[in-house]
Design goal:
Helices cover about 80% and strands about 0% of the residues. It is an all-alpha fold.
Length: about 400
Amino acid sequence: MTGFWAISTAGFLATAMTYGPARMGFGLFLGEFRSDFSLSTGMAGLISTLGFSGFLVGLLVAYALLARRGPRWPVTLGLGAATAGFALVALAPNAAVLAAGVLLAMASAGFSWAPFNDAAHRVIADQDRPRALSLVSTGTSVGVAAAGLTALALHMLGLSWRLGWTGFALAGALATLVNALDLGGEAARPGPRPDRCLAELVHRAAWPIYGVAASYGTVSAIWISFAADRVQQAGGLPGLAPAAAPGVVFLAYGIFGLSGALTGWLHDRLGLPRLLYTLQATAALSAGLVALAPAMWSAVLLSAGLQGAHVMMTSAALSFWTERLYPDAPSRGFTAALLAVAAGSALGPAAAGFLSQAAGGGAMFLTIAALPAITLLLLMRATIRERPVGD
């Protein structure tokens, strides 16, 4: 395969597994986990926060590995962690083993995305990189849709959720093999050392990135942890058993998330500022809909679709935005942005779980909807640029 297709295919599979069932699987199957492991909403929030904290640690370890060993090592290690996490969840006899499996699976996302910025920078032409990085990030939506379809099929056939997680483990092993083979040659070279150009990461031009990333991390983590459960706890969707609702929610999320492949095209036509404004408004509306109408088909599907588009397009935008600001160290810039995503992701679910337990799911999601709305207002006052920070 050419460099473009080798990197795009490997990255697509990596994000499909690590940002698909590995990152979303806990929220997708939360109803079953509640029943089998007697989880409260607060405990579910803590487990989700534990998983997103693993994502934060994974980012730091992956960056060190990238500098010393190149992209292949962190990506294959991350996919190996996802595979092991899936297997642990499938076999979990109690909540402690479940939490360990969730931690391993969710940590994999920290290893398996940022390295593709470096790989793409080395082997893909400048004009083709936004398209390639958009394809890499869109793997997430396919992974989420496949996970949602799996959950729905298991429910319709009356099969155990454990079978689904066994299937995730097998798919993770296959993705690990493909990435080990594709991330070779020039793409496998080690990146720049971690001690260079760190001052550039706190340049004023990067502040809007971190604000968008933190908001995105918080809102998306809470939505994927609790939105499907919110629908299920509200009685599900009319004409459908409550237990089938999460599969429908995440299937819609994944299908609409395919719009992430259009991020580069929209960026060229709208410009980065307008694209970011639109995505913040989309996130606020998505959270508001699941807060106010969790038992209405149109509102739930629109909420899932908007959230899927918001997550996939924002992640793609962060990827090529940081590549433009830091062309000499693209993975360093993207890792810094993902650390802001991870910080919001780690703090959000635990706080949201206890807020939901105290005030109800509706109040919690309305509170969350305010965050991207505030971010939108702040962005409109900020200077958003795509030139290298040294220019």
